[in-house]
């Protein structure tokens, strides 16, 4: 591996690393995946800068948060708007994406089957419809753009798409794969992102 090639360290699934991988593919920025097993993560957790993954190891140092990694790669790949207001909109969505992960994560960590089922029911019936509704309202207030922020794909799309793809995949037990169908604007933009050739390429062969 070239010293200059960043290494993205994560587990063998999409999660918070998907947006970074997508930015690299779409932006033409070379990175390499370094997969860590869960056992290795447990053993090395206290050695990680913020105690979590993903991390992006570069020749200048380690970037420890997925949004920072996404912006670092996205800027190199021209996936970040130059307009300050549009950039603020991108930042809004990067933060909202983390809100989604924050709602999902406790139900993933929960070991009690009954408690997990109750948590997933609340997510499916109340939390996710409310949050997706926020995005629907946000899109309606921002015109009929092709993507979340304008007509060119940005890191905001690459943050939100893997989250909605996860919800729509049916892989989250207790969460309906039809949640997005009640939100026409979200569905429209989601489908536009999913139709991008490089997004299709990544999901067809993510490398794990």
TrEMBL record:
Q: Which residues form the GST N-terminal domain?
A: 4-81
- Matches recorded under InterPro entries: Glutathione-S-Trfase_C-like, Glutathione-S-Trfase_C_sf, Glutathione_S-Trfase, Glutathione_S-Trfase_N, GST_C, GST_superfamily, Thioredoxin-like_sf
Q: Which SUPFAM superfamilies match?
A: GST C-terminal domain-like, Thioredoxin-like
- One Pfam family, short name: GST_C_3
Q: Which GO terms describe its biological process?
A: glutathione metabolic process
Q: Which residues form the GST C-terminal domain?
A: 83-208
Per its record, how is this protein called by name?
Glutathione transferase
- Domain of life per record: Eukaryota
User: What terms describe the molecular function in GO for this protein?
Assistant: glutathione transferase activity
